[in-house]
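May I ask for a sample protein chain and its fold as tokens?
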Amino acid sequence: MSNGWSRRDWVKVAVAAPWVGVRGWRIGESGHGNAVPLLGSEHAGDLVSDAFPTQPAELVREMVTVAHFNLNRVKELVEARPSLAKASWDWGFGDWECALGAASHMGNRPIAEYLISKGARPSLFSAAMLGQVEVVKAFIAAQPDVQRIRGPHSIPLLAHAKAGGEPARAVLDYLQSVGGADADPSVPFSEADANPLRGTYVFGIAANQAIDVTFERGGLTWTRKGGMGRPLIYLGERAFYPVGAPSVRMQFAGDEKTMVMTVSDPEPVLLARRK
């Protein structure tokens, strides 16, 4: 799999994610900290979300976002809400990523080690980045071909070992020896291939019921209005899947005047026509 998106690109995407607080206040803000007013108190209705007791989605998203690159903010969040060390976020189509997974594919050892010390669940991917070669070997011995499983955003296990740098050299060498841990071969896709597919596709009348299909970094990007772009992996015959969601299919059909996009997961869930 190769779509031209580097770890640096993912940081830029993550930085674009809104960092907002909970119902008007932020964790760590003076006067609030991690406190939740007692149910039934005078101001409880102002701060207690309808989703309580689940963790606020805004904080979960921020936690996974900053776990890519900002150790200080990670510590602030975890100190205020310790369970955020285990936070996971769906970036779209089931591209789930936990905070430790974010640190692992970025090669951010300080954040990964801090999260594990606070209760984050170690994984094959964190072990690969941290250079824990015996752990990686044990995973593969217990579950042959597990090295073929992809991480968040379809990032392969081998890339996690590369992100770990010299401390993960033994893992990198081992994975190269067993095979199957690298990206899948890519299907050639050019800007000329993209031109007939680019544009805005609509599936309703509301402002956000539209999808922009653009050509970026050598591949298509699928962005719902007001949302975050999802890079697409080309499979051939105008069929794609979004990174991190290989069971999803996006099929384009039509000509220059009439182009239709069908999204299946795995059954058809959306049909949109280009304006």
Observations:
- The longest strand covers residues 210-216.
- Strands lie at 88-90, 96-98, 199-202, 210-216, 219-224, 230-236, 239-242, 249-254, 259-264, 268-274.
